[in-house]
Write a structure and sequence with these properties.
Number of strands: 12
CATH class of the domain at 3-198 and 234-313: Mainly Alpha
CATH superfamily of the domain at 3-198 and 234-313: ABC transporter type 1, transmembrane domain
Helix content: 55-70%
CATH topology of the domain at 3-198 and 234-313: ABC transporter transmembrane region fold
Strand order of the largest sheet: 6-9-10-3-11-12
Low-confidence stretches: none
Number of helices: 20
Oligomer: single chain
Radius of gyration: 35 Å
Largest sheet: 6 strands, mixed
Length: 577
């Protein structure tokens, strides 16, 4: 368990707040510890003299001490919550920033609901049970330690008898704490599984209903929910057992000290005032003793959550190379030089790929599924680096270039359009948030999107639902094209997908695509024969290799895989209009 190191990283930026909270703890505890001494003097003086004036003075002094303690207690609680909330917010920021910079293959290896569970559920556990509890733990520990010291100062014999049971309580706390941490880790995994189930069902709601699987999904959710409930109830039982056992141990200690204390007063080895003060200190020790047990249990739960959080933070991120530089001037020729790529050792997605894309040229990639088309796009956007060989732009190896300077000059329009929560305007301006409304409208007009946008309830300010599902496929694609146009890119990467659209939508999208590509360099993953025909050059891929290259006419004349793809309708013609 690597919690201490990560905990230091979380706490250190907020150490001033923590220190101020601890200072209030010390002051409040010191004020509280002085009260039983006032009780001792009060009882002994009244017993000896019967002076009621002294009673009034001591009462006023006690009230002043309690007021002072309340002021410091307010500071302790307020500063504690401020520290915990700020530290938790920073931890979530750090997690989100880390995930944004994960390698693409790591994103594919984690379910989004699992990441969300760790970023929200587990960080909340860390906040509630560790960061908020950290100052409480210090306060409880200081109060308990101060009380123990005062007990031994008053009478070491009675204190020794009272605390004889401490080793047994420590063993109890350790036993229960270990079980609670293990069970808490299981419960947190169950929460992540439940979140995954909810997200999948919501995302696939239409499929679930179309195939009449509501009952099956309800049963699966209920089964997983019951498993989570069992783990949570077990945690509750363990905590209840621990607190009850510690409470019983504390009561046993109380009975011991009352019996021994009574014997000492009877033997005149202790004054009545000292016994009253001793009882007050023991009473003060009971609450922090029980609280310490509870806080320890919570800390073990938080430790399991922090381990899960740290697992996300340990994933290596894509780092900029030392000495990375911006791409100079306009984008030059793109060259793949003997490029090999393996996502896993020994499993080659690309094998010795060599080709070039000249400025202003439109190159189409065709091939069967799994041929390596998307891998070429991944390399050009530098989602991955080649295992062997290199990719250059204007003669500069992409591994020597600042990634943002490359991607800002390339527009990527994926096959599956991604829209974000926000308005239509927000989505079009995603790559240029500072763009004016006039610029957004111009991009939408060029993408054939302005007409349907103005018919929406609030036009460009219409909020989109999750993933923009209230829009048709063609409308979403045109928004994506407008988003690309607004950035005025030099290079277009287009995963062209119009086969699922009706003829009218396809015509509008195709016209928008042509405007997007006009005067720009483009690399197109082609799904339609019509797109291939318009390309300046075609690369045919199979098994991670370029097996054919040329124009449409030359490739049709030479036969081979391209002709098979074309004649076999793997590259279908557009639907007749």
């Amino acid at each position: 368990m690597r919690v201490p190191g990560l905990l230091r990283e979380i706490v250190w930026p907020h150490r001033a707040l923590l220190a101020a909270a601890v200072a209030c703890v010390l002051a409040a505890t010191a004020a509280g510890l002085s009260v039983p001494l006032l009780f001792r003097d009060l009882v002994d003086q009244i017993t000896a003299t019967g002076d009621l004036a002294l009673l009034q003075q001591l009462a006023l002094l006690g009230l002043g001490v309690f007021v002072l303690r309340s002021v410091f207690l307010y500071g302790q609680i307020h500063l504690n919550f401020t520290f915990a909330h700020r530290a938790t917010a920073d931890l979530r920021d750090r997690l989100f920033s880390r995930v944004l910079r994960w390698p693409v293959d790591r994103l594919g290896g984690w379910h989004s609901a699992e990441v969300m569970s760790r970023a929200l559920q587990d960080t909340q556990l860390v906040h509630t049970h560790l960061l908020v509890g950290l100052v409480d733990l210090v306060a409880t520990g200081v109060q308990l330690l101060g009380t123990v010291v005062m007990l031994f100062v008053l009478d070491w014999r009675l204190a020794t008898a009272t605390f004889a049971i401490l080793p047994g309580t420590a063993l109890l706390a350790r036993h229960f704490g270990s079980q609670i941490q293990h069970t808490s880790a299981l419960a947190q995994r169950r929460v992540a599984e439940l979140a995954t189930r909810v997200r999948e069902v919501i995302a696939g709601a239409r499929i679930v209903r179309a195939f009449v699987q509501e009952g099956r999904e309800e049963r699966r959710f209920s089964a997983e929910n019951r498993r989570l409930l069992r783990e949570q109830l077990r945690i509750g039982r363990l905590v209840a057992l621990e607190v009850s056992a510690m409470s019983l141990a504390t009561a046993a200690g109380l009975i011991v000290f009352l019996w021994v204390g009574g014997q000492l007063v009877a033997a005149r080895l202790m004054t009545p005032g000292e016994l009253v003060a001793f009882i007050a200190y023991v009473a003060m020790a009971i609450e922090p003793g029980v609280s310490l047990t509870r806080l320890y249990s919570h800390a073990r739960q938080a430790a399991a959550a922090l381990d899960r959080v740290e697992e996300i933070l340990r994933v290596p991120v894509v780092e900029e190379p030392k000495g990375a530089r911006d791409l100079p001037g306009i984008l030059g020729e793109v060259v793949f030089e003997d490029v090999w790529l393996a996502y896993e050792p020994g499993r080659w997605a690309l094998r010795g790929v060599t080709f070039r894309i000249r400025p202003g040229e439109h190159v189409a990639l065709v091939g069967p599924s799994g041929a390596g088309k998307s891998s070429l796009v991944n390399l050009l956007l530098r989602f991955y680096d080649p295992t062997r060989g290199r990719v250059t732009v204007g003669g500069v190896d992409l591994r020597e270039v600042r990634t943002d300077s490359l991607r800002r000059r390339i527009a990527y329009v994926p096959q599956e359009t991604v829209l974000f929560a926000g308005t239509v305007r927000d989505n079009i301006a995603y790559g240029r948030p500072e763009a004016s409304l006039e610029e957004v409208v111009q991009a939408a007009v060029a993408a054939n999107a302005d007409g349907f946008i103005r018919q929406l309830p609030r036009g460009y300010d219409t909020p989109l639902d999750e993933a923009g599902l209230s829009l048709s496929g063609g409308q979403r694609q045109r928004i994506a094209i407008a988003r690309a146009l607004l950035t005025d890119p030099e290079f277009i990467i287009l995963d062209e997908a119009t086969s699922s659209l009706d003829s009218e939508s396809e015509a509008l999208v195709q016209e928008a695509i042509e405007r997007l590509m006009a005067g720009r360099t483009a690399l197109v993953i082609a799904h339609r024969l019509s797109t291939v025909r318009r390309a300046h050059r075609i690369l045919v891929l199979a098994d991670g290799q370029v097996v054919q290259e040329g124009t449409y006419d030359s490739l049709m004349a030479s036969g081979g895989l391209f002709r098979i793809l074309a004649e076999g309708q793997l590259l279908p013609e557009p639907a007749r209009r």
